[in-house]
Amino acid sequence: MKKLSLLLVGFLLIFTLAACTAEEEAVGENGEEIPKIGVTVYKFDDNFMSFVRRAIEKHGEGKADLILNDSQNDQAKQNEQVEMMISKGVKSLAINLVDPQAAATIISKAKEADLPIVFFNKEPSSEDMSSYEKCWYVGTTSAEAGIIQGELVTDTWKANPDWDRNGDGKLQYVMLKGEPGHPDAEARTKYVIETIIEKGIEVEELELQTGMWDSAKGKELMDAWLAKHGDKIEYIISNNDAMALGAINSLKAEGYFKDDKFMPVVGVDAIPDALTQIEEGVLVGSVLNDARNQGKGALDLALNAANGKDILEGTEWKLDDKKAVRVPYVAITIDNIQEAKDCYAQ
Ligand code: BGC
Ligand code: CA
């Protein structure tokens, strides 16, 4: 009996070793060994993140053996995925947190395994970032999207005096906010309004609620707000395009965007579906959130980290004092729509 179990253990060992070496055989274009990199995306069915994910995959081709995980909007699941990837021998981690507050948990796991981490899209707090030498961030300057969106609102409002439907000189708006606590959602919500006010326009908030970045939730909220306020609403400001598109669906169902019935809507991201709405004269504009470069940047840094190189080696990225690479936002209207199209064409 003892012999038999020893034999079994022996076999198991051989099999595991064989499996390990088989797994380690990922090779690059020139037959060289390429590193395993563990990637998580907070949820695969987020419109914008699906473009970031594709950029990561594309730029990783032939250079990295990616283990990609859908964290399904569940931080506990993501924590397990990180442990699983560490046990599979990844050389670095590229993490899109579910909960931005959970960075410390992920950092402690990586620290224990002495693994570098590149966070992307959801920025950890500066305390978390400075708690570990081997962590970096790739994203944007969150406030910038709000400022640019505020300028878009201001410019279009001033150019269209009839948008002040009740003629009181104030802009009555509803706000579709992204996930509360998400640095992008918080900063966009704050800075868009601050910018409008700074530019001399008085505002009145009719509604502000979270649509969790999600199109269906954006539509639900808009249905309710239209029923409650009707055309007392003068502007719809959305933290992202997905929710703006949901609101547009709701408005279309109420007869907007035909026979002179119009409602201004602005978003952020400039994803392809939003660009179509800009071309059709429905969406006023958006703010390009450069998915391609954020995906590429996250991969570039994670790859350098995995290969033990200097984090910026061979790239054109720059780090700020928060160890962050920040890709700029760009205002998008019909006039420069091609710029956003090129970015999402990948
Ligand atoms: C994007 C949103 C997206 C979110 C996910 C933001 O930067 O604008 O569309 O849902 O990131 O974290
Ligand atoms: Ca008004």
Summarize the structure in short.
With 346 residues, the chain is an alpha/beta fold. It has helices spanning 2-23, 47-60, 75-87, 103-112, 126-130, 142-159, 183-198, 215-229, 241-253, 272-279, 291-306, 337-345, and strands spanning 36-41, 65-70, 92-95, 117-120, 135-139, 170-177, 202-210, 235-238, 265-266, 286-288, 324-326, 330-332.
Explain what the structure shows.
The protein is α/β, with parallel strands linked by helices. It has twelve helices and twelve strands. It has helices at residues 2-23, 47-60, 75-87, 103-112, 126-130, 142-159, 183-198, 215-229, 241-253, 272-279, 291-306, 337-345; strands at 36-41, 65-70, 92-95, 117-120, 135-139, 170-177, 202-210, 235-238, 265-266, 286-288, 324-326, 330-332. The strands form three sheets. A six-stranded parallel β-sheet has the order 2-1-3-4-5-11, sandwiched between helices. Strand 1, helix 2 (47-60) and strand 2 (65-70) form a beta-alpha-beta unit. The longest helix has 22 residues, at 2-23. It is elongated and about 80 Å long. 47% of the residues are buried. Residues 46, 48-49, 121-122, 182, 184, 213, 240, 242, 268-269, 289 line the site of beta-D-glucopyranose (BGC).
